[in-house]
Amino acid sequence: MKPKFKTTQAWEQAGLLMQPALIRIVDHIRQQLEKTTWKATYKDVQTPIPGHAVCLEKPDHSTCINLWELCFQVCFQEYAPVHSEVESQEVDIDTSLIDEDGEVDWHSLDTKAQKVIEQVFAEFAAV
Question: Which of 90, 95, 21, 7 is nearest to 51 (CA)?
């Protein structure tokens, strides 16, 4: 899914949040993996946006998740992944992740990233 920003300010806020969100997501994946016997590999993806996917593997199942999709869940309000890679979705920035000085609120960002990854791992464990 390609996000569609309503304003230039929203695009700038996404630019502020996306890299820190990616850093926290990758770290929380690492932390969750330490609690399991699962394996994870990262691979390059080209669609819908060039980037990376994490592929989780356990004895009876595997899945790959686009890291940008996880970042979108952290950075945008009520983001729901769509099934079409070429479809655009208008998004709203989660402004609770930005402090009053216009900087990243690292604590809020970390907390939300942790919840997203815990949900991913819980869903994968249930399969």
Answer: 21
Query: What is the pLDDT at residue 96?
Result: 97
- Long-range residue pairs from 118-127, CB within 8 A, at least 24 positions apart, any chain: 118/28, 118/32, 120/65, 120/70, 121/32, 121/36, 124/38, 124/56, 124/58, 124/61, 124/63, 127/61, 127/63
pLDDT digits (tens, 9 = 90+) for 71-110: 999 999 988 776 666 677 789 999 999 999 999 999 999 9
Alpha carbon 73 to chain centroid distance? 5
Task: Answer yes or no: are the C-beta atoms of 71 and 22 closer than 8 Å.
Answer: yes
pLDDT of res. 69: 92
